[in-house]
Write a structure and sequence with these properties.
The structure is a single chain. The chain is α/β, with parallel strands linked by helices. The protein has a domain at 4-152: Hexapeptide repeat proteins (UDP N-Acetylglucosamine Acyltransferase, domain 1). Helices cover 14% and strands 26% of the residues. It contains four helices and 29 strands. The strands form four sheets. The chain has an eleven-stranded mixed beta sheet, with helices on one face. It has a nine-stranded parallel beta sheet with strand order 1-4-7-10-13-16-19-22-25, with no helix packed on it.
Length: 285
């Protein structure tokens, strides 16, 4: 098992197509399927039951979780598109059961960032999605076709990114947020918020997503009231810090409101998307 000269470490049964090129230093878990014309480089660890369908390239210090499916022409762990990168040892991680569809590209981290590009478990990245260096995508995120993101983007759990959206580097997308298709996102999106447009504006809450996660009507009302107080049309003319102070001074604790406030308080490179809510602020909540 330790003699790399004899071939890659395979935990049988693994099905490897004869046209695949597997580096002797790669570690291939039990039940892995590697299809035609795939290339797996040194330092790659592929978890049990993962599938590389065909023409997939995985390189660098990369860990592919159990049950991951990489579809044709996906590349994972290649060097970042960053002129400062000089080949330093950095990493890429993909969590269990995540699916990366055709022509997706996921680049390794940089030493000027976190050093790792990370995608969580149970995510779906549709065709031609690009995940740049040092991005951190949490569990259960869905990213539709042709989405691109700059480096250091952070996406919270269960967020949904619409097709052809463009996310500026260092943007933070909060948990459960919804990004409309063909949106240019230049600032941070609050948890559970919905933004859309070029440039993206906050238009309301992801009510459907909140309901799917078991938030009751009272919880929706408390969160919507808090968001309207911070971002709604009736808050114009008030300093944002003063609106925050008013919200914090209100009696009672709500976990979702507290999560939103913690997101606002966290370090930000881009600042919040703080446009006033419009007609699509969901009134049926």
């Amino acid at each position: 098992m330790d003699n790399f000269a004899d071939g890659p470490i395979l935990m049988p049964p693994a099905a490897i197509h004869p046209s695949a090129v597997i580096d002797p230093a790669a570690v291939i878990g039990a039940g892995v399927t590697i299809g035609p014309f795939c290339t797996v480089g040194p330092g790659v660890v592929i978890g049990e039951g993962a599938t590389l369908v065909s023409h997939v390239v995985v390189d660098g210090d990369t860990q592919i979780g159990p049950g991951v499916v990489l579809h044709p022409f996906v590349t994972v762990g290649l060097p970042p598109q960053d002129l400062k990168y000089k080949g330093e040892p950095t990493r890429t991680e993909i969590g269990a059961r995540t699916q990366i569809r055709e022509h997706g590209s996921i680049h390794r981290g940089t030493v000027t960032g976190s050093g790792v590009t990370r995608i969580g478990a149970d995510c779906l990245l549709m065709a031609v999605v690009h995940v740049a260096h040092d991005c951190d995508i949490a569990d259960g995120v869905i990213i539709a076709n042709n989405v691109v993101m700059g480096g250091h983007v952070n996406i919270g759990a269960n967020a949904v990114i619409g097709g052809a959206a463009a996310l500026h580097q260092f943007v933070r997308i909060g948990r459960g947020a919804m990004i409309g298709g063909v949106s240019g996102v230049e600032g941070d999106v609050i948890p559970f918020g919905t933004v859309m447009g070029n440039r993206a504006k906050l238009i309301g809450l992801n009510i459907i997503g909140l309901r799917r996660r078991g938030v009751d009507r009272a919880g929706l009302h408390r969160l919507r009231t808090a968001v309207r107080g911070l971002f709604g049309a009736d808050s114009h003319g008030a300093v944002f810090a003063d609106r925050l102070a008013v919200l914090r001074a209100q009696p009672g604790e709500d976990a979702l409101v507290a999560e939103m406030l913690a997101f606002i308080d966290a370090k930000s490179h881009r600042g919040l998307i703080r446009s006033a809510l419009g007609a699509r602020d969901d009134d049926d909540a």
